[in-house]
Amino acid sequence: MNTSGPTPTQLDCQNNGIPYNCPKNCSAAVQAAIDAAGAAGGGVVTLGIGRWYLDGPLLLPNNVRLKGAGMDRTAIYFAFR
Fold first, then answer.
1. Residue 1: its pLDDT value, please?
2. What angle do CA 46, 51, 55 make, to 5 degrees?
3. Positive or negative, the Cα torsion across 26, 40, 65, 8?
C-alpha cells in the first residue's frame, strides 16, 4: 500500500452493518465497504469469521486490501449463474 498518502482506513464489515456469517448475498454491502476504503485513500476491509456469499465480482481500487480472519476461518462463496 502507498504509505505517502492518507492513513489507511481499517473497515470491519461487522461494524459497517454486515453480519459475520452472512447467510444471504453480501456483494453490495462488501463492495460498499471496499468503495469507502478507496474513497478514504486506501485501507483494509476485513471479512470476519464465517461464510460470505457473493453473486458478483469485487472490484478493489488501488491501496485497498481485502482481509479475512484466516484460511480456515473465513470463506467466500461465489454464486454461479
1. 45
2. 90
3. negative
- Reported as a pLDDT band with limits 50, 70 and 90, residue 19 is low
Backbone angles phi, psi at 12, to 5 degrees: -95, 120
| Cβ neighbours around 71 below 10 Å, total | 7
44 near 18, Cβ under 8 Å? no
With cell 470476519, the residue in question is 48
User: C-alpha grid cell for residue 41?
Assistant: 485513500
Instruction: Say which amino acid occupies 19.
Output: P
DSSP annotation string for 8-75 = PEEEEGGGGT--SS--SB-HHHHHHHHHHHHHTT-EEEEP-SEEEEESS---PPTTEEEE-S-TTTEE
